[in-house]
Specification:
CATH superfamily: Glutaredoxin
Distance between the termini: 31 Å
Number of helices: 5
CATH topology: Glutaredoxin
Shape: globular
Strand order of the largest sheet: 3-1-2-5-4-6-7
Order of helices and strands: HEEEHEHEHEEH
Strand content: 15-25%
CATH architecture: 3-Layer(aba) Sandwich
Number of domains: 1
Radius of gyration: 17 Å
Mean pLDDT: 77
Length: 150
Amino acid sequence: MTRWMAAVGVVMLVGVAHAATLYRWVEPDGVVTYQNTPPPPSATHVRVMHMGSHASPAAVRKAVSLMHPVVLYGAPHCAPCQQVSAYLRRRGVPFRAVDVSRGQSVLRAMKKKTGSTTVPTVMVGKQILVGYIPSVLKNELTAAGYPKAR
């Protein structure tokens, strides 16, 4: 029994250590992506970040697999966009960042998906959040099944 409990403890520690890794990369089309899994071989500007979150990888995978992927529509010099991005990274939420300043086609695609051209706009699954209200984003991520920030 003691060996079994020790084994479970080791597995839990490994899971916590793994959950604290977040990968950032740029797709060939210029889209910046943050995930808790390594990037594809075509990715450039890859960065590995070790986060303070203790969220289990299984909990994050569950939220994403429940059709609640997170997309952040923003622009480089948008302070609220940077705040949203920083919050998502701190919380260990994998997300895709779309830079709408890359051209009219990106802006049109954003408008078609979200009904808005305001940045930041965050999609959590099918829920659309326009602007950055920390409590609203926090609650939406929690409702979607993402682990709470610690």
